[in-house]
Every structure is written in C-alpha cells, then in structure tokens.
C-alpha cells in the first residue's frame, strides 16, 4: 500500500506544479489575516502649535512645530503658491505671509 505522501510525489509534473502554486498562493493569504498589535500612530494636532503664530518662519521653527504637533511632515504655505489639495492627517501646514511671518498652522 502506498502512503498519501508517496502518492502526491508520484503525481504528474503539471499537477505537482498546480499543487505547489496553490500552496504558495494560500500561505500569504493566511498570514494577512493576523491581527496587528502595533499601536496606531497619533495624527497631527495643530492645537498644540498655535503658539508659533506671529514668529518668523525658519527650518528650525518648522521642525519644532512638526515634532510638537506629532506630524510626520511639514509644508510651508506661501501667498500665491500652488499646492496639492490632497489631505494628509499626518502633515502640518504652516501658512506664512509675504514677509515670512507664520499666520496659521493646520493639519491636512
């Protein structure tokens, strides 16, 4: 009597490839269903950085404001500038006037 393992090994090569391909396809799908335990990253909070209003914009100020807001990135918004309209909850937008003074800070 032949064992099941031996029978599987004796399948035609084309069938073995199908079986192998199916196993490779199923394995990643099983792993994707695992629940994640990583803590969610906190989104940008512009209310924490309103104290920067009225200050002169600089790269150092932008970095301090980004860290204080918990943002991943920062974008300087100047009058007359062209900017994308996509919203990003992890981006701090720093609005400045023509003289470079911070006039607004918002996330998005």
Instruction: Detail the poorly predicted runs.
Output: 2-11, 15-32, 35-39
| Total domain count | 2
**N- to C-terminal separation?**
69 Å
What sort of overall outline do the alpha carbons produce when their principal axes are compared? globular
Average of the residue pLDDT scores: 76
> What's the total helix number?
3
What topology emerges from the helices and strands here?
Blueprint: H1 4-9, H2 13-32, H3 59-69, E1 73-77, E2 91-96, E3 102-107
Short description, anyone?
With 108 residues, the protein is an alpha+beta fold.
3D architecture notes:
With 108 residues, this protein is of the alpha+beta class. The protein has two domains: 1-33; 46-107, 2-Layer Sandwich (Trypsin Inhibitor V, Chain A). 34% of the residues lie in helices and 16% in strands. The protein is built from three helices and three strands. It has helices at residues 4-9, 13-32, 59-69; strands at 73-77, 91-96, 102-107. The protein is globular. The model is unreliable at 2-11, 15-32 and 35-39 (pLDDT under 50).
